[in-house]
Amino acid sequence: DVPDVPDVPDVPDVPDVPDVPDVPYVPDIPNVPDVPYVPDIPYVPDVPYVPDVPYVPDIPDVPDVPDVPDVPDVPDIPDVPDVPDVPDVPVPELPVIPSEPLLYALTVAAGEGGKTSGSETGLYLSGSVIEITEEANGGNHFIGWMVNGITLTNNNVVTIKFIMPEKNVEIVAQFEEDEDDDTVLNDENPITGITFKFTAVLTGGVLCIVSRRFKGRNSRNCRTHL
C-alpha cells in the first residue's frame, strides 16, 4: 500500500518584480582599421671593431721667445729740392687721316638713238675707275656727253674714263639722226685720241678720251687710232 501523501503547505505569495529600467542606447562600435603592415627591420651588420687610439706623448714645452732689441732711430730725411720747371714740349700737328672711301651713286643713261656699255648705274666707291662707251644705233650718231646737267665741250668722244669723285655723278649720252652727207672717214684720215680734264664738272675726276668720232653717215665704220 502506498502511504498517504502528506499535505503540501501553501506556497507563500511571490512579491512583484520591480520594473527594470530601460538600458541606455549603446552606439555601434566603429570599425577599427587594420594595423598597417610593418615590414621586417633590415639586418643591421655588426659594427666593425675600432682599434684603440695609439698613445700620444705630451707636447714638450716651447721655450720662451728671446727679447727683440729696440730698433735704432731713423734719421730725418733731408728736404728734396724743388724740381725745376720743365719747358713746354712742342707738339707737332697730327696729319689729317683721310676718311674711308664712301659709296656714291653713278647714273648712266642714253638718249634716243643709242645706248651705253661699260660701267652701269649703281653705287661705287670714291676712287673707283669708271669707263663708259657710247653705242649709236643705225641711222644715228653720237653728239656729246652731259655730266651732272652740264654739256661737255669738245666731248664728241666714244669712251670716257674717270675716277669716281666724292659726289654723285649723272652721265647722259646724247644722240641725233644722221644727215644726208657724203663724208666718208677711212684709214687715210685717222683720228687721234686726246686727253682732257674737266675738273669744273667732276671735282678730282679726270676724263680721258679714248677715241673720237665725227658726225657722218659712215662714221660708225671709221677705224680709230690711239
Trace the largest sheet across and list its strands. 3-1-8-5-6
Mean of residue pLDDT values: 76
Whole-angstrom Rg = 64 Å
Relative helix content: under 10%
Oligomer description: single chain
Uncertain stretches: 182-226
Count of helical regions: 0
**Helical/strand content category:** mainly beta
Largest sheet: 5 strands, mixed
Total beta strand runs: 9
Gross morphology is: elongated
> Per DSSP, what share of the residues sits in E-state strands of 2 or more residues?
15-25%
Query: How many angstroms separate the termini?
Result: 193 Å
One letter per element, helices H and strands E, the order comes to: EEEEEEEEE
Question: What would you say this structure looks like, in words?
Answer:
The chain is mainly β and 226 residues long. It has no helices and 9 strands. The chain has strands spanning 103-110, 114-118, 122-125, 129-136, 140-147, 150-151, 159-163, 169-177, 208-209. The strands form 2 sheets. Strands 3-1-8-5-6 form a 5-stranded mixed β-sheet, with no helix packed on it. A 4-stranded antiparallel β-sheet has the order 2-4-7-9, with no helix packed on it. The termini are far apart. The model is unreliable at 182-226 (pLDDT under 50).
Main traits of this protein?
single chain, about 230 residues, mainly beta, four-stranded antiparallel sheet
